[in-house]
Queue: 3 jobs
Job 1
Amino acid sequence: MDMWDPYGASERGHLPLSESKIVFDQFHIAQYLARAVDKVRREENKWLKQAGDERLVGRKYLWRCHPGSFNKKQWRAFEELRESDLKTARALKETAMCLFDFRRLGVARKFFRRRCYWVPHSRLEPMQAAARMMNEWLENILTYLKPGITNAVSEALKAKIQWVKYTARGFRNQQNFITAIHFHCGGLELAP
């Protein structure tokens, strides 16, 4: 689930032993880290443009895309920026997404502590805020490693229900909406 406090409060209020059952998955961690890197990029781009440096102009999506989807030209441009002395490159290197590659809690915890040790010294406030947030919720982030599952299926189902609601432009009653959800999301075989 998301790290929004009301979600956690609801979970703690309705579920016994909820602290060990709350899981923050990769999507939400990646979202927070990407926002922090993007904030560093925007601040640095503004400062560089004032100094006449155009290295980050037109490169916004290089930082937002997954490197596995790059073509050769994009990969070369990304590598050039990533290996530079820019604050954005430093912020990108501080992201802790490889935390989810571990299978043992102790090793993952040790990796995170080592990775986040030097973040306060980096003088990149958005990355410091992201590291503080991850440190605060670390145990619930690491609970992802136990079952290794995400809420991607439920998020996809929710998106499909929203699509049904949007394309119908409203229903006369709630039962018609429920029937439409069953029809589109129920996996019914309609062939005779």
Job 2
Amino acid sequence: MLAAGLRHGVAAFVACVAACAAMPARAQAPILEHAVKATYLHKIAAFVEWPASAFEAADSPLVLCVAGNDPVGRLVVEAASGRTYGMREIAVRRVAQPAATTGCHILYVAGLRDDAIAAYLESVRDKPVLTITDGAVERSVKGAVNFLIRDNRVRFEIDLDLAAAHHLLVSSKLVGVAARVVPQP
């Protein structure tokens, strides 16, 4: 029984690799980029400390909220399914408007104009919410973490002052792998 399941898993993996190989090179990059960002969204939680008051109970889930029209948002549920933050389950929730961000611990906002992103970020100002945006270094509105592409790789920058304003402690391990940190540690 196990061998049959293993063969099925290997066959599915080979089919996936073959499908990706058949795609034009320019189509592969965005698919991989989106999958990496979706994975980062829940993995970053392991390197951030929220105050105990951010959770209703010791077993309350870590709520990862997704706002905006971004292909990464569609992959987040799949990437975070069954994942945990310490002893907390990670729950993913889509939010359609800034007023719906109550209860979020991580807020990912992408695929919107700067004014809409600013409205989402404002809705969680001074709350223990890790804000994550996706955009260029030049973007005027960013979260405490901002995804960017450097040397054809998904990287991120961290704004430590903004994280501190949200009552969050960012691990030096995460800071150490960031492409850019503001202010410089």
Job 3
Amino acid sequence: MNPLRTRLAAVALGAGIVLAAPAAAWAGPFRGVTSTTVSAGTPSGTATVDQWRTRCLAAIDVRLPALSAAKAALAANQQVTAEHRQALNADLDDTTARLETLRTKIAADTDLAALRQDCRSIFGDNRVYALVLPRTRMVVAADVAGAAADTLDQVAGKLDAAIAKARAAGTDVTQATADLAAMWAKIDSGRSAAASVPGAVLGLTPADWNANHQVLQPARQSLQSARSDLRAARDLALKIRNELKA
């Protein structure tokens, strides 16, 4: 393989690594289920104040580290835009502050009715596992996909130059030219799908999720489409490289 093809292979491989990054960096389930995790309907109606308090404090205590871990992962990702980083950090910080305030209040509650209401607020007013953490993952993944599209643009530009050089040398580049056009189209559609995700999810509130549990689904589908298109573009890049090599 000549030096140009070596560079093309390296850049195409780099694009593949970038496309895999969201799954690696944000692996794991959305909900951290443990023996102490509670839902809005528990403890039972016959539980004592102490039982409610213990279970509800435990629910907060599994959410706070999850928020902290998400913030650390966000800080480590250099492909997130400054605007999105600021919005996500604000969301994580606000949710953390609300839960810390609730923790103090629940620890001091003596009235069962008030305690139950505060416990339900852990879920209904915050939606850490249902909204906050998935939204963070999705925005990060969208920005990573946008960076992958930029990388693939560079690959396509190099392939375009290589095709022109092969054409000038008398090589039949009909198939490579058609594949490059398809590659450009996949890059554009992938970038567009990824770019739609942050605007669709950043403004959502726990109340939005409470009213519609599928509120994240359209953005999730857009992100899946973006990844599929960009992977197809990467595969076309490798195909064109092999066509030129042949």
